[in-house]
Amino acid sequence: MTCLRFSRLIVRACCLALLASSIAHAGPGDWSGQGPFGGSIGKLKVDPLVATRLYASTANGFFRSDDAGSSWSVRETGLLDAHPSNSVFAISASVPGRMWLFDDVGRLYGSIDGGSNWLATGYSVTTNVALGTVSLADGAGNTTWLANDSAGLLTSTDGGITFAPVAGGFPSGQTVALVVTSPHDLTAATQHVIASTSSNCDPGTGVCPIYVSANGGATWSASIISGALTQAGAAQRLIAAEYGPGGTVYALYGDVNFDDTYLLRSSDNGAHWSGAPTQYGSALAASPSTAATLWLDSARSIDGGAIFTPLGTVGLNTNGTFVPRPASIAVSPGYPATPRLWIGTPYAGVYLSNDDGATWVSSNDGIAATNIRSVIVHPTDNTRIFAGFGDSIGDPSAAFYRSTSVGTWTASNTGLNAYQLRTVLIDPTTAGTVGSTVLFGVGSGFDWSGGHAIARNSGIYKSLDGGLTWATQSGGTALNNGFSSSPTWPGNLRTVIADPRSCDARGPTAPPCSTGPLQTFYATGGGRSVLGLGNTAHPYRVIKSIDGGASWSDSSVGIPDDIENPDGSQDRIDGVTPIVMDPSDSRILYIGTFASAFGPDAAGNPQVSPQVLSGVYKSVNGGASWTRVSNGLPTYGGSNAVYDTLSLAIDAANPQTLWVSTISADFNIPGEIYKTINGGTTWFVSNAGITGPDVRALLSDPLNPGTVYAASGGLGPANPGGVYKSTDGGSTWKSISVGLPSFSATALTLDPVDPTVLFAGTGGGVYSIVQLPDTDTDGVPDLIENSGPNGGDANHSGGQDSTESGVGTTAPGLFGGYGWQSGTANASQAARLSQLQQSIQSLKTPQMQMAAGNEATGGGIQGGYFTTEVSGCAQAVDVAPVIAGPLGLDVDPHRGTYTYPRGLVRFELPQCASAVVKITFNTASFGAGWSWRIFGPSTPGNNATMGWHDGSSLVTTHGVDSWTIQLTKGQYGSYRPAGTGAILFEGGPAYTETIFRDKFE
């Protein structure tokens, strides 16, 4: 009965798919994502029952393709901790559409419609949910298998609600790392199951047992493994296993880091195995029809693994040279009649081959998993947007993207020997035409031109044609001889800036150049240790070029060397990230550093607080030397080392004014921003209104002195990041974060042609927002509030809602990512206002005002505007409507399914200890069957407690068309932990025909 109940609930959830897919993600006052697509693919699987359907788990969520990879869409409706990235999911080979998935906090979900809708089963794991520690498999009949690390091998027969240890002779007390089921034996009595342990291993060989069952887990026996599988002291177990036809199974066997792996083969469903070492071994697939055919990494074997032939590489590259490593391989269920293959890569997205691996094409449209660490707009043609992919570690990525219109991106990296770009810079003196624009990019990469796959190049790249083609700037290669002889490479480069007066011999305070090209550039990064000097000298953390990037020299004098302590511990400044130049004097520069400590302290405890003098440094002589200017910045306990300083901004009109962000270990407090008004002599905290935990980017508006933007990363939905704006020099900040993903942004830039448009680089690509006039800075544009009920005075206060910071009036269908059809991000503000006016007029038509049906059955939202009215706090921000459908079903086992005809309300109250909020819904009439519900964490700041909850304890009064709720920071009803000093709320009026267990209302 319980499983039947679970299935019925999912069936009722299916109707939400159309609603979720129809929601636009753009609008005035609302961030919209626009690509580029691709990025980090963790696991790629094809549906065994639908040959053209694929699933991809990525660094930014879960995606599905219904057209063999030509296009993708996010499939996360009902996932309480959105955007799972751990790659732990399973697809049924016997029941169409049945799937299982773990989110990142360990909750199990089920779907019966191919992931269009998910429902939490109620089961959670307590171990770290990651591929390799937890494994899922769909079994025959109603069985679900779970390899739950130290909790052992478990099964469920009630739809994933409960799990119990397997019986039948499977040894108890084992750490189980992997479980797989045969897709050919689809009855419980005959299904073959393989489970691999990472415990009870042979101490001499490191071989861990493999167990098999031929009767759906009724009985078990240990496999017999032959071959010289010996790696003493290292636990070797199954990393992956794939069933072929006729009892054939292929497996990768080794340690979890793939340092030494073996390819195993079994012809009797895993009872006996034989194997031999393989050089690589991270991606494995077996032919569904031919027992002797398999794929391993980028090669295929047709003789059972004795000989492998490399697949073709035509089209399978990121820049014409780099061939990305497969993280996952998928084979069409119709193979070989349909010779279709897919490869998912660590950082380069998905590739598709329709000719058995001879040629490939990129297949990423819709996969929003590119980690953009740099975004800039061309200064004269704002249809040209450039973005750099960041944080690729040891594997190729597309590295650089060009856009000629919103959502139309092209990887443009011919000659770009970069695995990542952390900063892209335009030389403005060359920007007369896009085709002649000079671009610089810095990051890290590998130079294969000399045939040495591990030779690190300079990390500096230059384009003379607007990013179409690139060349490595190799001058100064003595900085980095690669890994072959000594560790003398300068590490990942992070930032590059240009001296705007360096086109000729004009002085450092002369007007900037209007023609070029510029000649002086500075780049920052990790620097390098110099062998023979006690490994403490650490130059090249700042490097300088005076010849247009052709050659570079060290510019790090004054930045402290590493510290080698007598007890073996080491302190070092790991690198320099931000560098800014005084806009009035090119000799004056500022940098921010980050430090770490390694080894034990004097008492033998792990070293946690570096002693090296990190912080902000200043140069007054063009980088020839640096002086520490960090008075007032926060330091580690027991140390003068400053917290990591990862972003800087300088006021163009008042260059003695700068802002810096500092990153502490406490992410339950607001992101830290400090300000100086005397060129760094002293700093003071300046983050009032910041609520996100981790500020990673700062941007000073060059046209509006005192206007500053900050971008904060987040810790997930229960403590999200955001983008913040200050118009008073950082004294106060207001969030402008509606529509941003919860992990938010790490790069910011303004459109130089239309500065109302702000761009952000995120883990899901580039986002943009059109900033419309918003007098009270509550997140709702003035035009919307002024068009609301009672002539724009919805709360009947006698003043316009658009001027009252504690009053927000808006409606679904206008903005907030719900129903607004986007124009281009670079549309003029007037055009956006015209679009918004049309949307407001349509909302006022009888068709929009009438009850359009129940949202949970795929209809529209009833009624029009709602108004939030705050007392006890001065300011509400990010006031927005939320459609409940994509959040999944709200089900109570006693009261049935809640529906949300009026949608939900979301807002934040920064610097607020407690508040009373009255929420009035225009034209509403809340009678019997209505209650107040919230969506969020039951424990503030805890992602594992996200979900639907009863909000009745928050309600103080309830009228015919309104609800008044009491909210307190850090308490039930608020997303964020108390340390942030803010209240973030999401909830609304819910309707249900209350049916109790006895079937009586």
Stretches where pLDDT is under 50 for at least 5 consecutive residues are 1-27, 449-453, 480-488, 816-826, 845-862, 996-1001
Which CATH architecture of the domain at 425-756 is right? 7 Propeller
Terminal Cα separation, in Å? 22 Å
Number of DSSP helical runs: 6
Question: Main beta sheet, described?
Answer: 5 strands, mixed
The CATH C-level name of the domain at 425-756 is Mainly Beta
**Class inferred from helices and paired strands:** mainly beta
Strand content: 25-35%
The strands making up the biggest β-sheet line up spatially as: 19-23-22-21-20
What is the fold's blueprint, element by element?
Layout: H1 2-13, H2 16-22, E1 32-33, E2 38-39, E3 41-46, E4 54-58, E5 61-65, E6 73-74, E7 89-91, E8 99-102, E9 107-111, E10 119-124, E11 134-138, E12 144-148, E13 153-156, E14 164-165, E15 176-181, E16 193-197, E17 210-213, E18 221-222, E19 224-226, E20 237-243, E21 249-254, E22 261-266, E23 272-278, E24 284-286, E25 294-296, E26 299-301, E27 309-310, E28 328-331, E29 341-344, E30 350-353, E31 361-362, E32 368-369, E33 372-377, E34 385-389, E35 400-405, E36 408-411, E37 420-426, E38 439-444, E39 460-463, E40 471-472, E41 493-498, E42 521-525, E43 542-545, E44 553-554, E45 563-564, E46 570-581, E47 589-598, E48 616-619, E49 627-628, E50 644-650, E51 658-663, E52 672-676, E53 684-685, E54 694-700, E55 708-713, E56 722-726, E57 734-735, E58 745-750, E59 757-762, E60 765-770, H3 782-786, H4 789-792, E61 807-810, H5 829-843, H6 846-849, E62 866-871, E63 877-882, E64 890-892, E65 896-898, E66 904-909, E67 914-921, E68 930-937, E69 946-950, E70 955-958, E71 962-968, E72 983-991
Parallel strand pairs: 2-32, 19-23
Antiparallel strand pairs: 1-60, 3-4, 4-5, 5-6, 7-8, 8-9, 9-10, 11-12, 12-13, 13-14, 15-16, 16-17, 17-18, 20-21, 21-22, 22-23, 24-25, 25-26, 26-27, 28-29, 29-30, 30-31, 33-34, 34-35, 35-36, 37-38, 38-39, 39-40, 41-42, 42-43, 43-44, 45-46, 46-47, 47-48, 48-49, 50-51, 51-52, 52-53, 54-55, 55-56, ...
